[in-house]
Amino acid sequence: MKVAVAGCCHGALDKMYETLELLQRRHNVRPDLLLCCGDFQAVRNEADLRCMAVPAKYRHMQTFYRYYSGEKKAPVLTVFIGGNHEASNHLQELPYGGWVAPNIYYLGYAGVVRFRGVRIGGISGIFKSHDYRKGHFECPPYNQQTIRSAYHVRNIEVFKLKQLKRPIDIFMSHDWPRSIYHYGNKKQLLKMKSFFRQEVESNTLGSPAASELLQHLKPTYWFSAHLHVKFAAFMQHETNSKEELPKATKFLALDKCLPHRDFLQQIIDVEHDPNAGDSLEYDAEWIAVLKATNSLVNVTQSSWNMPEQNGLHAKWDYSVTEEAIKEVLEELNHDLKIPCNFTLTAACYDPSKPQRNMEPVHTINPQTTEFCAQFGLTDINDRIQQAKEERSGRGECEEEEEEMDSTGSAEEPSEYNTDNSGLSSFNPDEIMLDEEEGGDEDLSTCSVDPSPDHPHEFSTSFSDIRIMPDSMVVSSDDATDSNNEELEKSGGSKQGEGKSPTERSLKRIGGDENGNSGVKKIKRRNQAIYAAEDEDKTD
């Protein structure tokens, strides 16, 4: 079957689906499935915009609301993960996944589903070490810390995915797995994004948690987005025994949604089960893992480690047996079809009646309630609501939570010794919020349209086969060029070339002699997707 893969679409669903329809008319190519690797922006109304972690002037309604209201329907089954620019309050309603609109399915914080026999997994958000070991405690209305921490990857999701034993065909993450750039054409990557050089050579660009999953899951395909540059890599994995067959992963990082000529090169042919139906299905092993790990659910800000074989835990292996998988199948009467139970849970944006003062509320989604009841799982949002009511009943105030800085300074050290979400490089193409500021940010809902992109050429051929070491550590001496010279030239961001990272200051601008800023400084990456074309030219 044909699978189309998109990078960050930033709410431009009309453009994305029109591109697919254009492909069909011009090239007679019709994808059976569309995957989106984050920054989907399922924004239903003005309140959702207030929950999206971008500066206020970049908040724009875009076109998702038309699909949410039923005015339009996605012409192809669409499955997506969350990124770091999302309506977090909306996606939080579906921690285990669910329909955000008819024919558009969100995988949840982490998830695995099947379509025509193809096993598709993903993990939402980006990595930040200071939030990695916390529970999912955030809920709307968010403060300046939780609006960001809400989309940070948590160790429990990685732990769940690491319990999987059966092969994964396709996996999606928003940020890149750390070290993946050592298995593709680094020379061309750094030519397009010279400001990545320091992190590439020090092996700190990307998510260590995603690298851990890549090494464990060994999927046939891994797709990422986030850095708004195309990059292909091919990684041959180590085998654990002589009996184990060699496995390799084809990695592709995607730019944001592009004109049809590039989109055509982001469609892959995937082997599928010709006898399988056309419905999206639950994955029995994943459901069994959710049931097995349900006792580990945490909705507090307290940091904790997942069980491991270190003498401190009575149980550390939560992988499931064939018997447990069989029990799930029997519970479902061997009918794994995901019910089409989409429900409106918020008012839809009405262009004729704007409501700029609409406030976000914490919502329990009926899809999640039904899912948890069916499989005996904890409804995370219900647990959060109960915890809030208990604190309120005890007369405890929320000020400590509201004022808590998401820096993790009072926490135990993370199991990862660096704090990198793939965002620490200066990238003039992307918005990056200042993690140290934001208390005075205006949460009103005005913004500008995204700018158009320019067409590129790209080949998804995969050469440069290397063996992935267990440690995932590659020294700067190994930051050599690969032989994959087919990676396309990017039309984006040349303003950083020719300057060292130290020459491009990331410090606050303006302010007094003590460094106090009079004007809030926003670090930018991928700014082109938010700013209008004329603003782009002068920024």
From TrEMBL:
Known cofactor(s): Mn(2+); Zn(2+); Fe(2+)
Swiss-Prot/TrEMBL keywords: Hydrolase, Iron, Manganese, Metal-binding, mRNA processing, Nucleus, Zinc
Residue intervals of the Lariat debranching enzyme C-terminal domain: 235-381
Alphabetical list of SUPFAM superfamilies matching this protein: Metallo-dependent phosphatases (SSF56300)
Annotated InterPro entries: Calcineurin-like_PHP, DBR1_C, Dbr1_N, Metallo-depent_PP-like
Matching Pfam families: DBR1 (PF05011), Metallophos (PF00149)
GO cellular component assignments: nucleus
MF term (GO), any: RNA lariat debranching enzyme activity
Compartments, as annotated in UniProt: Nucleus
Keyword Cell division tagged: no
Biased composition (Acidic residues): 431-443
Region (Disordered): 386-539
Biased composition (Polar residues): 415-427
Biological processes per GO annotation: mRNA splicing, via spliceosome
Biased composition (Basic and acidic residues): 386-396, 486-511
Family stated for the protein in its record: Belongs to the lariat debranching enzyme family.
PANTHER family (alphabetical): LARIAT DEBRANCHING ENZYME, RNA LARIAT DEBRANCHING ENZYME
Listed name of the protein: DBR1 enzyme
Gene coding for it: Dbr1
